[in-house]
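Can you give me the bound-state structure? Components:
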Amino acid sequence: MLHLILFSVFGLVCVAGAINLLVQSHPINSALSLIVVMGSLAVEYLLLGAEFVAAVQVIVYAGAIMVLFVFVIMLLNAGEEERTKGSRVSLLIGIPGMIIGSVLMAWVLITHSGTHAVEAGALPGAPGEIAQLLFHEFLLPFEVTSILVLIAIMGAVVLAARPEPLQPEGKS
Amino acid sequence: MNVGPFILVSLVKILLALFVLLTAVAYTVWLERKVVGHIQNRWGPTRVGPFGLLQPMADGVKFLFKEDLTPPHVYKPLYIAAPMIAVIFALTSIAVIPFGDWLDIGPVSTMLQISDVNIGLLIVLGVTSLGVYGIALSGWSSNSKYSLLGGLRASAQMVSYEIALGLSLVGVIILSGSLSLREIVDAQGGHFWGFIPKWNIFYGGQIVAFFIYLMAAYAETNRIPFDLPEAETELVAGYHTEYSAMKFAMFFMAEYANMITVACIASLLFLGGWHGPLGGPPWLQALLQIFWFMARVFVFLFVYIWVRGTLPRFRYDQLMAFGWKFLLPLAIANLVITALVVALRA
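Here's the bound-state model for the whole set.
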Protein backbone atom coordinates (compact mmCIF):
# COMPACT_ATOMS: atom_id res chain seq x y z
CA MET A 1 0.00 0.00 0.00
CA LEU A 2 2.77 2.40 1.00
CA HIS A 3 4.55 1.41 -2.19
CA LEU A 4 1.55 2.38 -4.30
CA ILE A 5 1.12 5.73 -2.54
CA LEU A 6 4.80 6.60 -2.93
CA PHE A 7 4.78 5.47 -6.54
CA SER A 8 1.79 7.68 -7.36
CA VAL A 9 3.23 10.66 -5.48
CA PHE A 10 6.54 10.50 -7.32
CA GLY A 11 4.74 9.87 -10.60
CA LEU A 12 2.84 13.09 -10.04
CA VAL A 13 6.06 14.92 -9.09
CA CYS A 14 7.63 13.63 -12.30
CA VAL A 15 4.76 14.87 -14.48
CA ALA A 16 4.63 18.19 -12.63
CA GLY A 17 8.36 18.65 -13.20
CA ALA A 18 7.94 17.91 -16.89
CA ILE A 19 5.11 20.44 -17.22
CA ASN A 20 7.10 23.01 -15.25
CA LEU A 21 9.99 22.46 -17.67
CA LEU A 22 7.79 23.63 -20.53
CA VAL A 23 6.17 26.51 -18.65
CA GLN A 24 9.29 28.15 -17.23
CA SER A 25 10.72 30.89 -19.39
CA HIS A 26 14.24 30.83 -17.98
CA PRO A 27 16.52 28.04 -19.27
CA ILE A 28 18.11 27.37 -15.89
CA ASN A 29 14.72 26.83 -14.27
CA SER A 30 13.84 24.42 -17.06
CA ALA A 31 17.09 22.54 -16.51
CA LEU A 32 16.36 22.29 -12.79
CA SER A 33 12.86 20.94 -13.52
CA LEU A 34 14.47 18.33 -15.73
CA ILE A 35 16.63 17.32 -12.75
CA VAL A 36 13.46 16.91 -10.70
CA VAL A 37 12.07 14.67 -13.45
CA MET A 38 15.26 12.57 -13.46
CA GLY A 39 15.28 12.29 -9.68
CA SER A 40 11.67 11.21 -9.39
CA LEU A 41 12.20 8.69 -12.20
CA ALA A 42 15.07 7.28 -10.15
CA VAL A 43 12.73 6.91 -7.17
CA GLU A 44 10.21 5.12 -9.40
CA TYR A 45 12.91 2.66 -10.49
CA LEU A 46 13.83 2.14 -6.86
CA LEU A 47 10.21 1.42 -5.94
CA LEU A 48 10.01 -1.10 -8.80
CA GLY A 49 12.97 -2.98 -7.35
CA ALA A 50 15.58 -1.85 -9.88
CA GLU A 51 18.01 -0.32 -7.40
CA PHE A 52 21.05 -0.40 -9.67
CA VAL A 53 19.26 1.39 -12.49
CA ALA A 54 17.99 3.96 -9.97
CA ALA A 55 21.49 4.68 -8.69
CA VAL A 56 22.89 4.92 -12.21
CA GLN A 57 20.04 7.23 -13.18
CA VAL A 58 21.01 9.60 -10.39
CA ILE A 59 24.78 9.38 -10.96
CA VAL A 60 24.76 9.62 -14.75
CA TYR A 61 21.72 11.72 -15.61
CA ALA A 62 21.13 13.94 -12.58
CA GLY A 63 24.76 14.07 -11.46
CA ALA A 64 26.73 14.31 -14.70
CA ILE A 65 24.68 15.07 -17.80
CA MET A 66 22.48 17.68 -16.15
CA VAL A 67 25.53 19.30 -14.56
CA LEU A 68 26.87 19.78 -18.08
CA PHE A 69 23.50 21.25 -19.16
CA VAL A 70 23.58 23.73 -16.30
CA PHE A 71 27.25 24.40 -17.03
CA VAL A 72 26.53 25.30 -20.65
CA ILE A 73 23.59 27.51 -19.70
CA MET A 74 25.80 29.30 -17.18
CA LEU A 75 28.67 29.59 -19.65
CA LEU A 76 26.55 31.06 -22.43
CA ASN A 77 24.68 33.16 -19.88
CA ALA A 78 21.43 32.39 -21.65
CA GLY A 79 18.79 34.92 -20.68
CA GLU A 80 15.05 34.82 -20.23
CA GLU A 81 13.09 33.77 -23.28
CA GLU A 82 10.33 35.86 -24.71
CA ARG A 83 6.89 34.48 -24.07
CA THR A 84 4.96 33.97 -27.28
CA LYS A 85 1.32 33.15 -27.63
CA GLY A 86 2.08 29.86 -29.32
CA SER A 87 0.49 28.61 -32.46
CA ARG A 88 -3.26 28.28 -32.70
CA VAL A 89 -2.96 24.98 -34.53
CA SER A 90 -1.14 23.30 -31.68
CA LEU A 91 -3.71 24.62 -29.21
CA LEU A 92 -6.71 23.43 -31.22
CA ILE A 93 -5.38 20.14 -32.53
CA GLY A 94 -2.36 19.25 -30.43
CA ILE A 95 -3.81 19.21 -26.92
CA PRO A 96 -7.10 17.42 -27.74
CA GLY A 97 -5.14 15.03 -29.93
CA MET A 98 -2.76 14.24 -27.09
CA ILE A 99 -5.62 13.66 -24.65
CA ILE A 100 -7.52 11.42 -27.05
CA GLY A 101 -4.37 9.50 -27.91
CA SER A 102 -3.38 8.84 -24.33
CA VAL A 103 -6.91 7.83 -23.32
CA LEU A 104 -7.08 5.46 -26.28
CA MET A 105 -3.72 3.96 -25.43
CA ALA A 106 -4.66 3.47 -21.78
CA TRP A 107 -7.96 1.89 -22.77
CA VAL A 108 -6.32 -0.53 -25.18
CA LEU A 109 -3.66 -1.48 -22.65
CA ILE A 110 -6.18 -2.05 -19.88
CA THR A 111 -8.76 -4.02 -21.82
CA HIS A 112 -7.14 -5.68 -24.79
CA SER A 113 -3.59 -6.69 -23.96
CA GLY A 114 -2.91 -10.20 -22.81
CA THR A 115 -0.18 -9.05 -20.43
CA HIS A 116 -0.65 -8.29 -16.78
CA ALA A 117 1.31 -6.31 -14.23
CA VAL A 118 4.66 -7.71 -13.13
CA GLU A 119 5.25 -8.00 -9.40
CA ALA A 120 7.69 -5.43 -8.02
CA GLY A 121 11.13 -6.99 -7.77
CA ALA A 122 10.30 -9.91 -10.06
CA LEU A 123 12.66 -8.68 -12.77
CA PRO A 124 16.47 -8.48 -12.34
CA GLY A 125 17.44 -5.32 -10.44
CA ALA A 126 20.43 -6.12 -8.25
CA PRO A 127 23.88 -5.19 -9.62
CA GLY A 128 24.96 -8.82 -9.93
CA GLU A 129 21.94 -9.79 -12.02
CA ILE A 130 22.37 -6.77 -14.28
CA ALA A 131 26.04 -7.68 -14.75
CA GLN A 132 25.07 -11.25 -15.63
CA LEU A 133 22.75 -9.90 -18.33
CA LEU A 134 25.22 -7.33 -19.68
CA PHE A 135 28.43 -9.34 -19.64
CA HIS A 136 27.07 -12.78 -20.30
CA GLU A 137 23.80 -13.02 -22.13
CA PHE A 138 23.97 -9.79 -24.13
CA LEU A 139 27.75 -9.47 -24.34
CA LEU A 140 27.94 -8.82 -28.09
CA PRO A 141 25.31 -6.03 -28.27
CA PHE A 142 26.84 -4.47 -25.18
CA GLU A 143 30.34 -4.43 -26.66
CA VAL A 144 29.07 -3.14 -30.00
CA THR A 145 27.35 -0.29 -28.16
CA SER A 146 30.53 0.51 -26.29
CA ILE A 147 32.47 0.69 -29.58
CA LEU A 148 29.78 3.04 -30.89
CA VAL A 149 30.26 5.27 -27.86
CA LEU A 150 34.03 5.13 -28.32
CA ILE A 151 33.68 6.28 -31.92
CA ALA A 152 31.48 9.15 -30.77
CA ILE A 153 34.07 10.19 -28.18
CA MET A 154 36.86 10.11 -30.76
CA GLY A 155 34.71 12.11 -33.16
CA ALA A 156 34.13 14.73 -30.49
CA VAL A 157 37.87 14.94 -29.79
CA VAL A 158 38.66 15.35 -33.49
CA LEU A 159 36.01 18.03 -33.94
CA ALA A 160 37.04 19.94 -30.84
CA ALA A 161 40.80 19.74 -31.37
CA ARG A 162 42.51 22.85 -32.66
CA PRO A 163 43.53 22.48 -36.32
CA GLU A 164 47.28 22.13 -36.59
CA PRO A 165 48.96 25.14 -38.18
CA LEU A 166 50.01 24.41 -41.77
CA GLN A 167 53.33 26.23 -41.51
CA PRO A 168 54.90 25.77 -38.11
CA GLU A 169 57.77 28.14 -39.03
CA GLY A 170 55.92 31.24 -37.81
CA LYS A 171 55.59 32.91 -41.25
CA SER A 172 52.91 35.51 -40.82
CA MET B 1 11.60 -6.09 14.98
CA ASN B 2 8.15 -4.50 15.06
CA VAL B 3 7.36 -1.31 13.23
CA GLY B 4 7.05 0.85 16.35
CA PRO B 5 10.46 0.08 17.93
CA PHE B 6 12.04 0.09 14.48
CA ILE B 7 10.92 3.66 13.81
CA LEU B 8 11.97 4.74 17.30
CA VAL B 9 15.44 3.17 17.02
CA SER B 10 15.88 4.62 13.53
CA LEU B 11 14.93 8.09 14.74
CA VAL B 12 17.38 7.88 17.64
CA LYS B 13 20.12 6.74 15.26
CA ILE B 14 19.39 9.51 12.76
CA LEU B 15 19.44 12.20 15.45
CA LEU B 16 22.62 10.82 17.02
CA ALA B 17 24.41 10.51 13.67
CA LEU B 18 23.43 14.04 12.64
CA PHE B 19 24.47 15.44 16.02
CA VAL B 20 27.86 13.72 15.85
CA LEU B 21 28.35 14.78 12.23
CA LEU B 22 27.56 18.43 12.90
CA THR B 23 29.77 18.49 15.99
CA ALA B 24 32.52 16.86 13.97
CA VAL B 25 32.08 19.53 11.29
CA ALA B 26 32.43 22.29 13.87
CA TYR B 27 35.50 20.73 15.45
CA THR B 28 37.12 19.97 12.11
CA VAL B 29 37.05 23.71 11.51
CA TRP B 30 38.68 24.20 14.91
CA LEU B 31 41.25 21.49 14.15
CA GLU B 32 42.05 23.07 10.82
CA ARG B 33 42.61 26.51 12.31
CA LYS B 34 44.73 25.03 15.07
CA VAL B 35 46.87 22.74 12.87
CA VAL B 36 47.36 25.26 10.08
CA GLY B 37 48.23 27.78 12.77
CA HIS B 38 50.96 25.56 14.17
CA ILE B 39 52.24 24.76 10.67
CA GLN B 40 52.58 28.49 10.06
CA ASN B 41 54.26 29.00 13.42
CA ARG B 42 51.39 30.73 15.21
CA TRP B 43 48.91 29.58 17.83
CA GLY B 44 45.53 29.48 16.09
CA PRO B 45 42.47 30.16 18.26
CA THR B 46 43.37 30.40 21.95
CA ARG B 47 41.03 32.92 23.54
CA VAL B 48 37.64 31.15 23.76
CA GLY B 49 37.87 28.29 26.27
CA PRO B 50 40.94 26.11 26.93
CA PHE B 51 42.98 25.71 23.69
CA GLY B 52 40.26 27.73 21.98
CA LEU B 53 37.96 24.70 22.23
CA LEU B 54 34.81 26.81 22.46
CA GLN B 55 35.73 28.71 19.29
CA PRO B 56 33.22 26.77 17.09
CA MET B 57 30.39 27.90 19.37
CA ALA B 58 31.54 31.50 19.22
CA ASP B 59 31.70 31.17 15.42
CA GLY B 60 28.19 29.73 15.32
CA VAL B 61 26.78 32.56 17.44
CA LYS B 62 28.57 35.08 15.27
CA PHE B 63 27.16 33.58 12.06
CA LEU B 64 23.65 33.64 13.52
CA PHE B 65 23.76 37.28 14.59
CA LYS B 66 25.56 38.79 11.61
CA GLU B 67 23.50 40.76 9.15
CA ASP B 68 22.12 38.46 6.48
CA LEU B 69 22.66 40.64 3.46
CA THR B 70 20.98 39.75 0.17
CA PRO B 71 22.53 41.81 -2.61
CA PRO B 72 19.94 43.48 -4.86
CA HIS B 73 21.26 42.04 -8.12
CA VAL B 74 20.86 38.31 -7.32
CA TYR B 75 18.30 35.86 -8.68
CA LYS B 76 16.57 35.32 -5.37
CA PRO B 77 14.93 31.85 -5.48
CA LEU B 78 18.14 30.09 -6.46
CA TYR B 79 20.32 32.38 -4.35
CA ILE B 80 18.44 31.20 -1.28
CA ALA B 81 18.09 27.58 -2.41
CA ALA B 82 21.75 27.04 -3.35
CA PRO B 83 23.28 26.88 0.17
CA MET B 84 20.42 24.63 1.26
CA ILE B 85 21.05 22.26 -1.65
CA ALA B 86 24.74 22.17 -0.80
CA VAL B 87 24.23 21.38 2.86
CA ILE B 88 21.37 18.90 2.37
CA PHE B 89 23.31 16.71 -0.03
CA ALA B 90 26.43 16.97 2.12
CA LEU B 91 24.56 15.69 5.17
CA THR B 92 22.48 13.02 3.40
CA SER B 93 25.26 10.58 2.65
CA ILE B 94 25.83 9.86 6.36
CA ALA B 95 22.63 7.76 6.16
CA VAL B 96 24.36 4.76 4.58
CA ILE B 97 27.72 4.91 6.34
CA PRO B 98 28.31 2.18 8.94
CA PHE B 99 30.21 3.09 12.10
CA GLY B 100 30.59 -0.37 13.55
CA ASP B 101 29.10 -3.84 13.81
CA TRP B 102 25.99 -4.70 15.82
CA LEU B 103 25.10 -3.15 19.17
CA ASP B 104 22.89 -4.88 21.76
CA ILE B 105 21.19 -2.74 24.38
CA GLY B 106 18.90 -4.93 26.44
CA PRO B 107 16.26 -6.41 24.11
CA VAL B 108 17.16 -4.15 21.21
CA SER B 109 19.80 -5.30 18.76
CA THR B 110 20.69 -2.79 16.11
CA MET B 111 23.47 -2.21 13.61
CA LEU B 112 25.56 0.91 14.03
CA GLN B 113 24.34 2.44 10.79
CA ILE B 114 21.20 4.30 9.86
CA SER B 115 20.35 1.95 7.01
CA ASP B 116 22.24 -0.86 5.33
CA VAL B 117 21.51 -0.58 1.61
CA ASN B 118 22.88 -3.09 -0.87
CA ILE B 119 23.93 -0.25 -3.19
CA GLY B 120 25.31 1.92 -0.38
CA LEU B 121 28.44 2.98 -2.22
CA LEU B 122 26.47 4.02 -5.31
CA ILE B 123 24.16 6.09 -3.12
CA VAL B 124 27.11 7.94 -1.63
CA LEU B 125 28.51 8.60 -5.11
CA GLY B 126 25.12 9.74 -6.39
CA VAL B 127 24.48 12.08 -3.49
CA THR B 128 27.93 13.65 -3.68
CA SER B 129 27.57 14.10 -7.43
CA LEU B 130 24.35 16.04 -6.79
CA GLY B 131 26.21 18.30 -4.36
CA VAL B 132 27.73 20.16 -7.33
CA TYR B 133 24.42 21.92 -7.91
CA GLY B 134 24.72 23.88 -4.68
CA ILE B 135 28.00 25.38 -5.81
CA ALA B 136 27.10 25.80 -9.48
CA LEU B 137 23.75 27.46 -8.75
CA SER B 138 25.18 29.75 -6.09
CA GLY B 139 27.77 30.91 -8.60
CA TRP B 140 25.17 31.56 -11.26
CA SER B 141 22.43 33.11 -9.12
CA SER B 142 24.81 35.56 -7.40
CA ASN B 143 25.02 37.40 -10.71
CA SER B 144 28.63 38.42 -10.17
CA LYS B 145 31.58 37.57 -12.36
CA TYR B 146 33.71 36.14 -9.56
CA SER B 147 30.93 33.89 -8.34
CA LEU B 148 30.11 32.77 -11.87
CA LEU B 149 33.73 31.87 -12.60
CA GLY B 150 33.95 30.01 -9.30
CA GLY B 151 30.79 28.06 -10.05
CA LEU B 152 31.96 27.19 -13.57
CA ARG B 153 35.34 26.04 -12.31
CA ALA B 154 33.74 23.97 -9.57
CA SER B 155 31.33 22.15 -11.87
CA ALA B 156 33.99 21.41 -14.51
CA GLN B 157 36.45 20.24 -11.87
CA MET B 158 34.00 18.05 -9.99
CA VAL B 159 32.64 16.36 -13.10
CA SER B 160 36.19 15.63 -14.29
CA TYR B 161 37.50 14.23 -11.02
CA GLU B 162 34.38 12.21 -10.30
CA ILE B 163 35.43 9.79 -13.04
CA ALA B 164 38.83 9.09 -11.53
CA LEU B 165 37.25 8.90 -8.08
CA GLY B 166 34.64 6.37 -9.19
CA LEU B 167 37.15 4.25 -11.12
CA SER B 168 39.52 4.09 -8.16
CA LEU B 169 36.72 2.55 -6.09
CA VAL B 170 35.85 -0.13 -8.67
CA GLY B 171 38.96 -2.16 -7.79
CA VAL B 172 37.75 -2.49 -4.20
CA ILE B 173 34.28 -3.45 -5.41
CA ILE B 174 35.78 -6.20 -7.58
CA LEU B 175 37.80 -7.54 -4.65
CA SER B 176 34.87 -7.60 -2.22
CA GLY B 177 32.17 -8.45 -4.77
CA SER B 178 29.63 -6.16 -3.18
CA LEU B 179 28.40 -2.58 -3.22
CA SER B 180 27.17 -2.70 0.37
CA LEU B 181 29.54 -0.75 2.59
CA ARG B 182 28.95 -3.20 5.45
CA GLU B 183 29.93 -6.22 3.34
CA ILE B 184 32.98 -4.40 2.00
CA VAL B 185 34.18 -3.82 5.56
CA ASP B 186 33.34 -7.38 6.62
CA ALA B 187 35.50 -8.69 3.77
CA GLN B 188 38.49 -6.87 5.27
CA GLY B 189 38.49 -8.69 8.64
CA GLY B 190 41.40 -10.95 9.62
CA HIS B 191 45.13 -10.89 8.88
CA PHE B 192 47.68 -12.06 6.31
CA TRP B 193 50.31 -14.35 7.84
CA GLY B 194 48.93 -13.48 11.24
CA PHE B 195 50.04 -9.86 11.47
CA ILE B 196 49.30 -7.71 8.39
CA PRO B 197 45.65 -6.66 8.60
CA LYS B 198 43.60 -7.66 5.58
CA TRP B 199 42.74 -4.11 4.61
CA ASN B 200 42.15 -3.39 0.95
CA ILE B 201 45.05 -0.95 0.85
CA PHE B 202 47.53 -3.84 1.31
CA TYR B 203 45.76 -6.05 -1.14
CA GLY B 204 45.84 -6.53 -4.90
CA GLY B 205 47.62 -3.24 -5.63
CA GLN B 206 44.86 -1.14 -4.13
CA ILE B 207 47.43 1.19 -2.62
CA VAL B 208 47.57 2.85 -6.05
CA ALA B 209 43.80 3.14 -6.00
CA PHE B 210 44.00 4.64 -2.54
CA PHE B 211 46.27 7.43 -3.70
CA ILE B 212 44.14 8.08 -6.78
CA TYR B 213 41.16 8.28 -4.47
CA LEU B 214 43.01 10.60 -2.12
CA MET B 215 43.90 13.07 -4.88
CA ALA B 216 40.50 12.92 -6.58
CA ALA B 217 38.82 13.40 -3.21
CA TYR B 218 40.77 16.59 -2.57
CA ALA B 219 39.57 17.88 -5.93
CA GLU B 220 35.99 16.79 -5.28
CA THR B 221 35.82 18.68 -2.01
CA ASN B 222 37.50 21.78 -3.50
CA ARG B 223 40.38 21.73 -1.07
CA ILE B 224 43.92 22.96 -1.52
CA PRO B 225 45.78 22.15 -3.79
CA PHE B 226 42.62 22.00 -5.93
CA ASP B 227 40.65 24.90 -4.45
CA LEU B 228 40.42 26.79 -7.74
CA PRO B 229 36.66 27.49 -7.30
CA GLU B 230 37.43 29.73 -4.34
CA ALA B 231 40.93 30.88 -5.20
CA GLU B 232 41.25 34.07 -3.16
CA THR B 233 44.02 35.58 -5.26
CA GLU B 234 41.95 35.42 -8.44
CA LEU B 235 38.27 35.25 -7.53
CA VAL B 236 37.85 37.11 -4.20
CA ALA B 237 36.09 34.13 -2.57
CA GLY B 238 34.77 32.28 -5.61
CA TYR B 239 31.25 30.95 -5.63
CA HIS B 240 30.31 32.25 -2.15
CA THR B 241 31.55 35.82 -2.66
CA GLU B 242 28.05 37.30 -2.37
CA TYR B 243 26.96 35.27 0.65
CA SER B 244 26.94 36.37 4.26
CA ALA B 245 25.94 35.17 7.72
CA MET B 246 24.23 31.77 7.96
CA LYS B 247 24.03 31.24 4.21
CA PHE B 248 27.82 31.46 4.03
CA ALA B 249 28.08 29.19 7.06
CA MET B 250 25.98 26.62 5.22
CA PHE B 251 28.55 26.43 2.41
CA PHE B 252 31.22 26.08 5.04
CA MET B 253 29.32 23.26 6.74
CA ALA B 254 28.75 21.55 3.40
CA GLU B 255 32.46 21.65 2.58
CA TYR B 256 33.49 20.15 5.91
CA ALA B 257 30.68 17.58 5.91
CA ASN B 258 31.85 16.50 2.47
CA MET B 259 35.39 16.17 3.78
CA ILE B 260 34.12 13.92 6.56
CA THR B 261 32.10 11.79 4.13
CA VAL B 262 35.13 11.37 1.92
CA ALA B 263 37.20 10.40 4.97
CA CYS B 264 34.54 7.87 6.02
CA ILE B 265 34.51 6.27 2.56
CA ALA B 266 38.31 6.06 2.52
CA SER B 267 38.31 4.39 5.95
CA LEU B 268 35.58 1.94 4.99
CA LEU B 269 36.90 0.98 1.58
CA PHE B 270 40.66 1.04 1.97
CA LEU B 271 41.55 1.11 5.65
CA GLY B 272 39.43 -1.72 7.03
CA GLY B 273 36.52 0.26 8.46
CA TRP B 274 36.05 -0.47 12.14
CA HIS B 275 38.42 -3.47 12.40
CA GLY B 276 40.98 -3.17 15.15
CA PRO B 277 42.00 -4.71 18.48
CA LEU B 278 38.88 -5.40 20.53
CA GLY B 279 38.28 -6.59 24.07
CA GLY B 280 36.00 -6.45 27.07
CA PRO B 281 32.22 -6.83 27.34
CA PRO B 282 30.06 -6.52 24.19
CA TRP B 283 29.05 -2.88 24.76
CA LEU B 284 32.70 -1.89 25.15
CA GLN B 285 33.56 -3.77 21.95
CA ALA B 286 30.90 -1.82 20.07
CA LEU B 287 32.30 1.43 21.45
CA LEU B 288 35.84 0.37 20.55
CA GLN B 289 34.75 -0.29 16.97
CA ILE B 290 33.34 3.21 16.74
CA PHE B 291 36.57 4.49 18.25
CA TRP B 292 38.75 2.68 15.65
CA PHE B 293 36.56 3.97 12.86
CA MET B 294 36.70 7.53 14.14
CA ALA B 295 40.46 7.27 14.60
CA ARG B 296 40.86 6.50 10.89
CA VAL B 297 38.56 9.34 9.93
CA PHE B 298 40.55 11.65 12.17
CA VAL B 299 43.87 10.63 10.58
CA PHE B 300 42.41 11.20 7.13
CA LEU B 301 41.14 14.65 8.11
CA PHE B 302 44.49 15.48 9.65
CA VAL B 303 46.25 14.61 6.39
CA TYR B 304 43.74 16.84 4.59
CA ILE B 305 44.71 19.78 6.78
CA TRP B 306 48.40 18.93 6.62
CA VAL B 307 48.26 19.01 2.81
CA ARG B 308 46.45 22.32 2.98
CA GLY B 309 49.18 23.78 5.12
CA THR B 310 51.93 22.45 2.85
CA LEU B 311 51.06 22.63 -0.84
CA PRO B 312 50.46 25.63 -3.10
CA ARG B 313 47.53 25.81 -5.49
CA PHE B 314 47.50 24.27 -8.98
CA ARG B 315 46.99 26.35 -12.10
CA TYR B 316 43.69 25.58 -13.82
CA ASP B 317 45.17 23.92 -16.91
CA GLN B 318 47.47 21.86 -14.67
CA LEU B 319 44.43 20.74 -12.71
CA MET B 320 42.59 19.55 -15.81
CA ALA B 321 45.67 17.91 -17.32
CA PHE B 322 46.41 16.13 -14.04
CA GLY B 323 42.87 14.79 -13.78
CA TRP B 324 42.39 13.66 -17.36
CA LYS B 325 45.89 12.73 -18.48
CA PHE B 326 47.35 11.26 -15.31
CA LEU B 327 44.73 10.15 -12.78
CA LEU B 328 42.22 8.73 -15.27
CA PRO B 329 44.66 6.46 -17.21
CA LEU B 330 46.22 5.36 -13.94
CA ALA B 331 42.82 4.49 -12.51
CA ILE B 332 41.90 2.52 -15.65
CA ALA B 333 45.22 0.63 -15.54
CA ASN B 334 44.65 -0.18 -11.87
CA LEU B 335 41.14 -1.41 -12.65
CA VAL B 336 42.33 -3.68 -15.48
CA ILE B 337 45.15 -5.15 -13.40
CA THR B 338 42.87 -5.77 -10.41
CA ALA B 339 40.30 -7.44 -12.64
CA LEU B 340 43.03 -9.64 -14.18
CA VAL B 341 44.35 -10.68 -10.77
CA VAL B 342 40.88 -11.55 -9.51
CA ALA B 343 40.04 -13.44 -12.72
CA LEU B 344 43.29 -15.45 -12.65
CA ARG B 345 42.85 -16.36 -8.99
CA ALA B 346 39.26 -17.52 -9.42
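A couple of observations. The radius of gyration of chain B is 21 Å. Chain B has one domain: 71-345.
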